[in-house]
Amino acid sequence: MRSSIAYFNGPVQNGAFTLAERPGKAAGMRIAEALNALLGLAPVPHLWNTVTLAGDVRHRSAADRATVDRQQREKEALVAKYAPGPAPAGGLRTDADHQVACLAREMTTGLLADGTLTVRDLPVRLCTRCGHMAGAGTAGDCRSCGHGSSRAARRSLLVFDRVAYGPILGRDDVHAAGARPPAHLFTIAHHVPRLLVLSRTRDHGVDLAPLGLEGMVLDPRAGLHAAVLAAAREAGAARPVMTLTENAAANVAAYGAPFRQHGPMRLRYVLHGKIPYEAAASDRLYEAHRAQAVKDLFTDWYLPLCAVRERVGISAVRIPALLKFLRRAHLARPTTPPGDLLTDLRHRVAAGDMRWVTDVRALACALSDREDTSGPMGPTRGAP
User: Fold this and answer.
1) Quick one: which of 40, 153, 250, 323 has the fewest CB in 10 Å?
2) Mean pLDDT of the chain
3) Per-residue pLDDT tens for 6-58?
4) CA–CA separation, 97 vs 227, rounded Å?
5) Using omega within 30 degrees of 0 as the cis cutoff, is the peptide bond preceding 45 cis?
6) At what angle do helices 220-235 and 98-113 cross, to 10 degrees?
């Protein structure tokens, strides 16, 4: 495997929406597409999180559940996410695919062997009707079947002792040259419970029965990382970088800590903020700034890149200024990107240094390279 950087989106939960309705859900995918294209890499798959309790409930309540299995239902829902546009050039992968499950079990077996993970008999609460295991401190009706009572029990669980492991999130885990380290995320990671349970009662996911945990799957927060590593192994990328928001990182980083490295592969995070797509959707905005020709470029390419520069989120009031800046760089783009400037730009992209998105010469170079390699409308036109 060659040593290389490649960007992958943090798997997006397969909920009840389309990307046309919720364009912000595609931000991580668009970031990965744009950065990989600047590095000259082939398109990577879009990654999706399908190991969800909501998905279990949705499948059980479906009228056609006897003829449509869960895997097929998830794939059909994912394809529909992209309508009316085409599916992504790199394809679709989920955190329950065969390759992901094989890699996740391989990693789990190794982590059990070296003592990073253990199987412990622990007290739990189980729904008296369906047997769903409630999370710590969960009260009320069963989230899986709606039943109102549970019972105390003991069950063998896959456990990660994060204190014995050491720091579970640090500066080296964040891929962001030149950016301020997200100290608040390090603090959140430091204060998660000592014992993290990595096995869950789900109908769908990475089955842990081969490891002696019948009826349980790998916690999806760990499985998300295995999905990225599986896609990276397929792409030959030893240094995969997962795009995700700070809120998502706060929720998944601790659970994914043991699953960030396997063999020569080491996963890191690149953080991005939310994009105010409502403010960027108005046709009047583009008419006022005579920027109709760059509307798709702005929403599908430039704003996602700016979201990496502005990790706390892009303010809606900045949308007009960012549009004017993009239009200025677009008008200034050279016919052929200067070799020295393009080389420097690629080094910055590989290092996670996103300060170039507000440098007009570097941005013009990126726009020229984008047109040179994919045509004037670029690889993301018509993308989700």
Assistant:
1) 40
2) 93
3) 999 999 999 999 999 999 999 999 999 999 999 999 999 999 999 999 999 99
4) 8
5) no
6) 110
Q: Looking at residue 376, what is its pLDDT?
A: 37
DSSP code for 135: P
Structure tokens given for 102: 């094989």
Residue 1 has pLDDT above 60, yes or no: no
User: What's the CA gap between 180 and 177, in Å, rounded?
Assistant: 9
Length, in residues, of the chain: 384
Alpha-carbon distances, residue 57 vs 54, 132, 144, 145, 221 (angstroms)? 5, 12, 6, 7, 19
| pTM (global) more than 0.90 | yes
Neighbours of 367 (CB within 10 A): 24
Give per-residue pLDDT as tens, 229-282. Answer: 999 999 999 999 999 999 999 999 999 999 999 999 999 999 999 999 999 999
- Assign residue 166 a region (left: φ > 0; alpha: ψ between -120 and 50; beta: otherwise): left
Query: Angle, to 10 degrees, between the axis of helix 360-374 and the axis of helix 27-38?
Result: 80
Q: Where are the domains of the chain?
A: 277-374
Inter-residue contact 243 to 270 (CB < 8 Å): yes
